[in-house]
Write a sequence for this structure.
């Protein structure tokens, strides 16, 4: 059995990993898919001061209280900031880190600096409370119909402070033995979010990284949970080395 910690992206929650978690649990693995402060069912917690470090600290507490070790860490989208900072703080707790169409932050980066049209993302979508950004219609939507139905009845928000904080890294996350990047591509083989293409390209050229592509939208855990699960199992105790880089 292997323990997986799944970190969701912006405007999402742990619910986004339900299908993926089911597939991993079905073959005997333990899965944690927490919702980060200020998002999804925890949106009511939105307050001044929620930032990347808030999310890192609460995950560190989860790991400590649950006494988790030798984990596979998966990060989606914004979750890449949180995962990298978490892994940098406690690299000894992880056997692998996998980025799923995600940011791979470097020391000093902020989400605001790396996303396309950052002023539009933050200023144009700021909630009435000044603490959150509302999901713009059509953004971050999977092709998965259930996902669209799920979010349609809610005001989907994300804490503004997470976009502004500079991530501080020592580089210790590089000590994690296995590292991988999964890029979402369309039918033409091109990335659905071109700003993630460079991370995948860097992974293909680095001897310590594995690189994969999966067909689907940005929310691959919803579009292709079977494909994502198959890749994750390569880093588990029941790894299947027959999985190709283009799943």
């Amino acid at each position: 059995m292997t323990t997986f910690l799944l970190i969701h992206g912006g405007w999402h929650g742990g619910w986004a990993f339900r299908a993926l978690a089911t597939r991993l649990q079905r073959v005997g693995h333990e899965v944690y898919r927490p919702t980060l402060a200020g998002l999804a069912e925890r949106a009511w917690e939105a307050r001044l001061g929620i930032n990347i470090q808030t999310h890192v600290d609460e995950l560190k507490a989860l790991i400590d209280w649950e006494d988790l070790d030798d984990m596979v860490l998966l990060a989606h989208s914004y979750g890449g900031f949180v995962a990298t900072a978490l892994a940098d703080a406690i690299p000894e707790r992880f056997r692998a880190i996998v980025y799923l169409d995600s940011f791979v932050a470097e020391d000093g980066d902020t989400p605001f600096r790396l996303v396309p049209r950052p002023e539009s993302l933050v200023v144009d979508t700021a909630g009435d409370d000044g603490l959150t950004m509302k999901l713009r219609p059509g953004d971050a939507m999977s092709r998965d119909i259930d996902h669209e139905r799920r979010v349609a009845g809610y005001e989907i928000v994300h804490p503004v402070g997470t976009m502004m904080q500079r991530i501080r890294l020592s580089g210790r996350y590089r000590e994690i033995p296995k590292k991988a990047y999964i890029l979402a591509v369309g039918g033409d083989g091109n990335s659905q979010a071109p700003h993630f293409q460079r991370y995948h390209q860097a992974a293909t050229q680095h001897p310590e990284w594995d690189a994969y592509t999966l067909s689907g939208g940005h929310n691959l855990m919803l579009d292709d949970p079977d494909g994502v699960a198959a890749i994750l199992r390569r880093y588990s105790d029941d790894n299947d080395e027959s999985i190709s880089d283009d799943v």
